[in-house]
Specification:
The protein has about 260 residues and is an all-alpha fold. The protein is built from eleven helices and no strands. It is about 80% helix and about 0% strand. Its main location: membrane.
């Protein structure tokens, strides 16, 4: 099975996602945005439903709804309508439910696209692999351009703003990265599990690193190992691949708890 073309495609696609998820996930951990990332991921299903309904790209639909939900959240947060975690809870579950309903109305059964929730990496085509690698390279390029500003904002947002950093613009750019990351990851680990792949390797890497750059590299490495372990578990134990990848990441995190945290 490991020598089959479909497995090789899955491995290449998974490694591409993992290489990007690690560095992006570091900022999600540093800025305590895990619930925010989950909300954008859930909104992606509504984008899929709109794509099916209107006949355009599902990836484009997921990115568009992710950005729309993020902008809505930023506006409501600035107006102090509700506490941020309350807003996230409302938008996260409402967008997920709306997505399931929309997909169900279009296809007659929401179950027809449940692979988008939990991933189906073993079915990726060479075209999917190309899209993932190109999208991943774009995410890393933008992240590299925003790196210093995001580091400064993660340390002290008000001080970063005082130093002339366009905080709102950088924050919007990072939100776009998460939305793009979610869209290109739909078929790999699924909309419900992408946040776990973003957060768990980064959280594990935090215990093994003493600089932001090291943490980003370690997080990417741990995410890649999680993909390999998850695919192997899928091949030899007939486990569902997306959850197996996330479970592997969780196991690696537990192992990092056994050693002292880097100073």
């Amino acid at each position: 099975m490991l020598t089959q073309p479909f497995f090789q495609r899955a491995l290449l696609a998974g490694l591409a996602i993992a290489s990007v998820a690690g560095p992006v996930g570091c900022f999600i951990v540093w800025r305590r945005m895990a619930y925010f990332g989950e909300t954008l991921a859930h909104s992606g299903l509504f984008g899929v439903g709109l794509g099916l309904l209107l006949g355009f790209s599902l990836t484009l639909g997921a990115v568009a709804t992710g950005v729309a939900v993020a902008l809505l959240l930023m506006v409501m947060k600035n107006q102090r309508v509700l506490a941020t975690d309350t807003l996230l809870g409302i938008l996260s579950h409402a967008s997920l439910a709306l997505g399931i309903v929309t997909v169900g109305l279009v296809t007659g059964s929401a179950g027809d696209h449940m692979d988008l929730l939990f991933g189906d990496i073993l079915t990726v085509s060479w075209r999917d692999v190309s899209v993932v690698w190109i999208g991943g390279a774009l995410v890393l390029l933008i992240l590299g351009l925003l790196w210093r500003d995001l580091i400064a904002m993660s340390v002290h947002e008000e001080l970063a703003q005082a130093e002339g950093i366009k905080v709102k613009r950088v924050e919007l750019g990072f939100v776009l990265l998460i939305a793009l990351m979610t869209a290109i990851s739909m078929k790999i680990v699924g909309l419900l599990l992408i946040t776990a792949l973003l957060v768990i390797p980064a959280a594990a890497a935090r215990r093994l690193s003493n600089s932001p750059e090291t943490m980003a590299l370690v997080a990417a490495g741990l995410a890649c190992v999680s993909v390999v372990m998850g695919l192997a578990l899928s091949a030899f134990a007939n486990a569902i691949t997306g959850p197996a990848i996330v479970l592997s990441a969780g196991l690696l995190f537990v192992l990092t708890l056994l050693r002292p945290q880097a100073s």
